[in-house]
Amino acid sequence: IKNVGVYTSGGDSPGMNAAIRAVVRTALYHNLEVTGIRRGYEGMITGDLFPMDRKSVANIIQRGGTILKTARSEQFKTAEGRKMAYDNLKKHKIDALVGIGGDGTFTGAKVFGKEYDIPVVGLPGTIDNDLIGTDFTIGYDTAINTVIDAVDKIRDTAESHDRLFIVEVMGRDSGLIALRTGIAVGAEAILIPETKTDLNALYHKLEQGRRDKSSKIVIVAEGEEAGGAFEIGRLIKDRFPNYDTRVSVLGHIQRGGRPSCQDRVLASRVGVAAIEGLLEGHRNEMVGIINGEVAFTPFENAIKHFIEINPNFLKIVDILSL
Ligand code: F6P
């Protein structure tokens, strides 16, 4: 391997910059050249590539977003798009890739790595934490801390007005942001895509919950099956017209901001491991951390899997919200 291409793809996540920095500096440390690819697979197809050096990643470890920019490429889903990408990589003499992203990124990398003889290693960069092969993804810790900051503020005003708030957090396919933050903010209920939403159970909970509670918070993951926070809010308003109910959708603030210490360290560890893994012959795998140790997982095992929700987490909410 002589020249490694690095890209970020899919939804950005805090800590992606720390990961880029680790990849670039480790490659240089091992006397490899590094090429930055802008906007993920889009940039590969259009040829938006540039050489990177130590300075190009200076002063970015603390910054949210991604200096390489990101995109979700439709063209890369086609064989012609991938051929154009490969031709551009060849033209720039790139002979290995490090892709930072989530499910969509690794779906593309898996197909590309099978079609063309170019080793690809992935780093788990998504706020959703919905990949197999790592205990945590880069950005998840920052995002959940952003959520609890926001919901703590909502709790202040909810308490002052004796209100019920339905708060929607991100995760169209995954309830892992909702689950952890719901526990951390002392939510009265959590609704996630992985479990069937039992509206009667929710009504019962809101009715029977301690009566001297003046505020109530229900955390709803974006992909929850009954229709998300606005629909749940509408149903609750119908059912409990005497509750003062409000809906708040946190949205993309969850994707931005300075990465937490945990995300920076995770990004640095897997960034180093990705380059060293490529040099050792790893390909078509994601590198994560499991139980404190670096672990490589084939792309096909890392993605498109139903992530089991720990039932203890849901039980904790039931016990502690009474
Ligand atoms: O996958 C990351 C994520 O933030 C999900 O939690 C969310 O459902 C989705 O991306 C939102 O995507 P977009 O930025 O395209 O609105």
TrEMBL record:
It is found in: Cytoplasm. ADP binds at R21, A22, V23, V24, R25, R155, G186, A187, E188, K213, S214, S215. Keywords: Allosteric enzyme, ATP-binding, Cytoplasm, Glycolysis, Kinase, Magnesium, Metal-binding, Nucleotide-binding, Transferase. ATP binds at G11, R72, S73, G102, D103, G104, T105. One of its GO terms (cellular component) is 6-phosphofructokinase complex. The active site is at D128 (proton acceptor). It catalyses: beta-D-fructose 6-phosphate + ATP = beta-D-fructose 1,6-bisphosphate + ADP + H(+). It is an enzyme of class 2 (transferase). Its main location: cytoplasm. Substrate binds at T126, I127, D128, R163, M170, G171, R172, E222, R246, H252, I253, Q254, R255. Mg(2+) binds at D103. Belongs to the phosphofructokinase type A (PFKA) family. ATP-dependent PFK group I subfamily. Prokaryotic clade 'B1' sub-subfamily. This is ATP-dependent 6-phosphofructokinase. The gene is pfkA.
